[in-house]
Amino acid sequence: MKIGVFVCHCGTNISATVDVEEAAAAIGKLQNVKLSVTYRYMCSAPGQELIKKAVREESLDRIVIASCSPALHEKTFRKCAEEAGINPYLIEIANIREHCSWVHKEKKEATRKAIELVKIAVAKVARNKPLKKTYVPIEKKVLIIGGGISGVQSAIDISFAKYPAVIVEREPSIGGKMAQFDKTFPTLDCAACILTPKMVTVSQNKYVTIHTYSEIESVTGHVGDFTVKIRKKARSVDLDKCTGCGACFAKCPVKVDSEFDMRLGKRKAIYVPFPQAVPNVPVIDREHCLWFQKQTCGACKKICPFGAINYEMPDEIIEEKFGAIIVATGFTQFDHSVYGEYGYGKYKDVITGLHFERMANSSGPTGGRIIRPSDGKEAQDVVFIQCVGSRDEQKGVPYCSRVCCMYTAKHALLLKEHNKDAQAYVFYIDIRAAGKNYEEFVKKVQDEYGAIYLRGRVSRIFEKKGKLIVRGADTLSGSQIEIKADLVVLATGLIAQGDAVELAQMLHIPYDQNKLFTEAHPKLAPAETITSGIFLTGACQSPKDIPDTVATASAASVKALGLLIQGELEREPLIAKVNTDLCSGCKACVIACPFRAIEMKEIEDKKLKRKRNAAQVIEGVCTGCGNCTAVCRMAAIDLEGFSDKQIMGEIEAL
Amino acid sequence: MRYAYYPGCSLHSTAKEYDLSAKEVARSLGIELMEIPDWICCGATPAHITMNLLSIALPVKNLLKAKSMGSYEVVACCAACFNRLKVANAFMETRDEDRRKVEDIVGEPYRGEVKVRHFLDVLANQFGLKNLKEKVARQLTGLKVACYYGCLLTRPKDITGFDDLEEPHLMDDMMKAIGVEPVNWPYKTECCGASFSLSRTDIVLRLSRDILQMASDEGAQAIVVACPLCQSNLDLRQGMVNKKYNTNFNIPILYFTQVLGLALGIEAKKLGFEKHIVSPLSLLKECSRRLNVGYIPTKREP
User: Fold this and answer.
1) Where in chain B is the domain with CATH 1.20.1050.140?
2) Running DSSP on this structure, what letter comes out for residue A246?
3) Under a CB-based contact definition with an 8 Å cutoff, are residues B233 and B204 in contact?
4) Sign of dihedral through CA atoms A590, A595, A598, A600?
5) Is A381 found in the same domain as A311?
6) Are the Cβ atoms of B166 and A462 closer than 8 angstroms?
7) Most buried residue among A79, A162, A205, B243 by CB atoms closer than 10 A?
């Protein structure tokens, strides 16, 4: 065995505190160490060349690099070793920078510690085995959960690369929350005008399949090979036969509050949620339909010229395989009924931003008039309250919902556009307008549209003589204010979907204390999850506006495509391995594994001459975390690259 | 139902009618209120602005006295007493380090084991509104009141915890149950100025004016309260409010126990109506013509 040790100065990062020459000399005396040298920057091209040359000349077979953290340059040196003709897993990094020179001052002591750290690495590398990367096949199809703007954008991006994508959306139409918006900040494009072309594109795309009115039933498997059950809820209308003529809902006698219009308007029991719905095929709301409740009526079936209505249609469960999953489930609005000071949600004229969007919309329930829902009169004085639910650790969520400052400014502007005599008052904590042209937009609303911005909170809203009395503080002037308002619009925050946790558990992806899905790294892997093959986009990860949502949708798509485009999936060999002879089949490892990477498999026990169950690691899924090796009481699982033997060697070297 | 009764200083002095009516109501419902012997001050506002430990030790001393009476729950009528006793209990239950300091002061171990309830809570939740309704002996139909809760009865929520924080409703529920009409008004928990009554009377006058005005606007004939300080500010200062703001309020400020007492058929003279500054007598007379309230004292007793 010929081990080469290469001690890096890292400029003066290491050499200022560690006497690298002394260390190299001390290590050179160790058993099996053929060569021990130093260099200014081992990671640089000449540094790597030095290693390669030493390997050739001294015919080294194992390498230890004493340098910075392996998190930074382990890959560099593995590649370097491979180029020098050594198996890349026969190298070890001794971290003498973060673990030594950066945290110590005393040079003598630090040098001693550096020598110890390298000794450990030498002991370990002596027990390293050559390892090979593994490869697993990939199902070349992407599942997109959620058909809002982020899901739609993801599907479009994936179809560009000519890979198939499947959107699963639980509502009767794709489009999500954006379809409910009137205008978008700061450019004031009509939301539907920029969204619906994308919805149509995706629906006409031969690479994209859309399952609306459908939900994910279960997800099993792993990266490259997910098996997903999808429940297609009974629409009661045949998607193929229906032409979207609308005769059925014109005839339907049952009127129900429209969810799409935030219950400000009505829909029928058979309905399409909005005119540009995709697919433009109605759905029967069985809870309100007379046929399903009382076995009467049946008008829609009688009138449909295409025989598309099917009262007997059952839920259908389909099973499909996917290589990657994009989670685009979006957000829901904070429920402000926990705020007693705003009337516990019982005042009709205290509405949310989404209500305002529907009212401002010319095809909305009020035909674009901003009115008081209580009496239908046009609203003149409108108070907007920001941070409702957001930035409130007691009753809401601690985080800032990011979009409310902007949408409130937009509402204040739209109010004036719809009614030039109206006056907007905005109560705010801070204005957070960080985005391209955002601050300018808020300024415009204040200067040109005369919105009065009041820095402070509202302490009370109550009704008196048909008006809403809004009491609050103006902390800039230090005074209490009372405004007689016609309408109050609450900028309710964005929170995780009610069933986000259920989905996260199904997908085996982590979520935070606010039930938002957690990215693999907050800065460097914002669109990935720690579960390989599952990606995040949009507001299910954190509140986002439309530009950010679209950007993350494209990011997630690229990540998913990067996966699919590989013929096979390359996996690090540093994973758990079961010695089935020792495995007792106790399943402790199965429970301990956070990635569901271990399953039980029947094996033929030659000694006992019978079949029995033993643990088996799914190579494509194991991340090498080591949980299983710690819980295995038979010591039947070992982690490649971190075997018990290697670790004992390290301890003994100390 | 037996309770240790902590009246506090108000109910022995300025709020004597609260004490009288609470005891009368309890008696007629078969609830036994045993006054804690030798009780001392709860500390009220002066203690907790002086020294935190003092403000805990004083109520704890009272709770220990109650403990020595046997295993009774303590009932308080004054919102401030109730609040201080509850705060002390929460403190002794949760703050291990500081608890020892208080135990050193009072000379006994205590971990908040004596439970404290407000009389409103006892009547509405323990005795039950349904049972109260069955005991009604006199229909007060037509009487419109504004139930005013003030600040200390429901706040902080985690400590008081028996009624809604922003929109308390137990007094309203009780009034409904006994046939009195509570007006729907937004000032149930507005500040009355509280202990600024003496040091900044101007603030109290302004705040009390707002409350009286709102109650009057919503058509209340009387305001019903559960706190002696609220009562005092709204009642005692009503004349000054009228003078300063050129108003003409004549709104009696009644304790909920007084109204309840009337409904239960207790003789009006036993409920201390003559002790109010804004006399409720003419209102009660009007009621008596319609509702047979019984004997109404005609002049204030010395």
Assistant:
1) 2-118
2) -
3) yes
4) positive
5) no
6) no
7) A205
For chain B, list the strands marked E by DSSP: 2-6, 32-35, 73-76, 116-118, 144-148, 181-182, 222-225, 253-255
pLDDT in the model for residue A266: 96
**In the prediction, which pLDDT does B285 show?**
81
User: Are residues A485 and A559 both part of a single domain?
Assistant: no
Check residues B109 and B296 and name the one with the higher pLDDT.
Answer: B109
Q: What is the pLDDT of residues B183-241, one digit of tens each?
A: 999 999 999 998 898 999 999 999 999 999 999 999 999 999 999 999 999 999 999 99
In chain B, the residue whose alpha carbon lies closest to the alpha carbon of A339 is B166
Q: Say yes or no to pLDDT of A620 above 80.
A: no
Q: Is B158 on the interface with A (CB under 8 A)?
A: no
Nearest-angstrom CA–CA distance, B44 and B229: 11
Mark yes or no for CB contact B165/A340 under 8 Å.
yes
The model carries a pTM of 0.81
Tens of pLDDT, residue by residue over A3-38, are: 999 999 999 999 999 999 999 999 999 999 999 999
Residues of B in contact with A488 (CB under 8 A): none
Instruction: Please report residues of A whose CB lies closer than 8 A to that of B164.
Output: 340
A463–B186: do the CB atoms touch at under 8 Å? Answer: yes
What number of C-beta contacts closer than 8 Å exist between A and B? Answer: 14
Contact B164 A462 (CB under 8 A): no
Cβ neighbours around A57 below 10 Å, total? 9
Pick from A353-357, A366-370, A545-549, B135-139: least confident: B135-139
Q: Scanning the structure block, which residue is given the tokens 């006054």?
A: B35
What token pair was written down for A419? Answer: 């009614």
First-to-last CA distance in chain A? 21
Contacting residues of A for B165, CB less than 8 Å apart = 340
Q: Are B167 and A340 a contacting pair at CB < 8 A?
A: yes
pLDDT in tens, A334-363: 999 999 999 888 899 999 999 999 999 999
Q: How many angstroms separate the CA atoms of A604 and A242, rounded?
A: 56
The interface predicted TM-score of the complex, written ipTM, equals: 0.81
Most B CBs within 10 Å, among A337, A394, A462, to test the B interface: A462
Does residue B202 sit at the A interface (CB-CB below 8 Å)?
Answer: no
CB pair distance less than 8 Å for B186 and A464: yes
Based on its alpha-carbon atoms, the radius of gyration of chain B, rounded to whole angstroms, reads: 19
**Do B164 and A463 count as a contact with CB atoms less than 8 A apart?**
no
- What CATH number is attached to the domain comprising A22? 3.40.50
Residue range(s) of every CATH 3.40.50.11810 domain in chain B: 128-291
| Confidence (pLDDT) at B301 | 46
Say if residue B297's pLDDT is above 70.
Answer: no
Assign domain B2-118 one CATH number from 3.40.50.720, 1.20.1250.20, 3.40.120.10, 1.20.1050.140: 1.20.1050.140
Residue A263 CB contacts under 8 Å (≥ 6 apart), including other chains? A257
